[in-house]
Amino acid sequence: MMPARNADRSFARAMGSPIARRRFLLSSIAAASAALVTAPSFAQPRKLPDRPIRLIVPFAAGGGVDVFARLLAEELRQKNGLTVVVENRPGANGSIGAHQTLNAEPDGTTLLFSAGTHVMAQQVMKSAPYDPIADFTSIARVGEAPMLLVASPKIAANTIAELIAEARKGQDKWTFGTSALGAPGHLAELDFNRLAGLNLLINPYRGTAPALNDVAGGHIQLLIDPVLALLPLARAKQVKGLAVTTAKRTALAPEIPTMAESGLNGMDHSSWYGVWGPKKLPADLTADLNGAINEAVRTLDGEGKLTKIGVAAVTETPPQFEAFARSYRDRNADLLKAANFQAI
């Protein structure tokens, strides 16, 4: 065995050559790089609230927002061991529930689950009690869904063309219901009026369920809202499902035509859903909640649970969600203006 001193001298003589030094340097860099690549990566565990989370739904139980919120709450419980309690706080166009989130401590234990309705508050309310984007933390957009126009079984029309023809004979006898002013369904109803050349009254309710009940009972004639909330009664023949509002038919009810197929071109509206927190929610907590929610949404989608309620999964970062919300608000503010909508 070569003594250590002789080995050092041999190594020094070998490194005396510029080519040898270069080869040694390159091989050392390659070895270090390989070590970095193959070294195990340890992701930091998410720091989620260790107390029960209130997931506030600002609409009545039984509607599309409520159904999705409860699916998400259960998946968060199963995946993360969280206690997530869905609380329905309807009223004042969704602002009662939103206000509870606004005034909560920014610790992740009070969150808002709502639809696009939330971001339209300042466009449909004269004295909105908050800025729905600046005064909240955008956490995650979780899904979008086609909507369905349903009609009372007491009207004679069975198609969109027949409906429009009948409504033109006496518009004062026709009323749309809507789950809330500024809701995706409300915006679709305004667009329906515009495209059909009608001016049918739109009456706001405290959520989908009471509006749908009034359509079924013949107290009002029409409603546009997410397919997932309206399809059961349409399938039961308690209301008439006439057309979906998207450019393509929905896999949940492929037998129902689109508005365009029914003779009303230009309609392409979807509902969408998101989770918000109070303003000043810490960035690291926002990111952890976003990660947990996105993971839950992917699982729900992979298991087919979202398809069953007519929802397409969406997973975005908080900045992407906020940018989408701003764009959506600005685009539909123009629709409200074109319809001469007056905030109330």
From TrEMBL:
Lineage: superkingdom: Bacteria
Keyword Signal: yes
Signal peptide location: 1-43
Keyword annotations of the record: Signal
Keyword Signal: yes
Pfam families recorded: TctC
Record family assignment: Belongs to the UPF0065 (bug) family.
The protein, known as: Tripartite tricarboxylate transporter substrate binding protein
Species name: Pseudolabrys taiwanensis
